[in-house]
Amino acid sequence: MPNNIAGHGLTDREMMQLCLELEKARIRSSSSALMETSHEELRRIYTRSFETACTNQQQLFTAMQQQGLYQVAQATAEQINAVQHTMQNNLDPGSRL
Known about the structure:
Mean pLDDT: 89
Strand content: under 5%
Number of strands: 2
Distance between the termini: 56 Å
Order of helices and strands: EEHHH
Helix content: 55-70%
Structural class: mainly alpha
Radius of gyration: 19 Å
């Protein structure tokens, strides 16, 4: 259903997708700042920001999925095994021997 925001006619899906992307960007930004901060009070602030953004992102994703606006294909066992193998090799390159 369209929402005419400032004449742009954004749909509910488009608005939710924009919000989801903003939360993902906030997660990346907070994470980066958190890793670079040595001041304890700033670390607490960035940690709260990170946690809030993660919660918001999950809630948006869940709402979109429940409304049929964000469909995720289920991975096969083979795909999962391939990713696990790749991750294991990246984490422990010596395991390839």
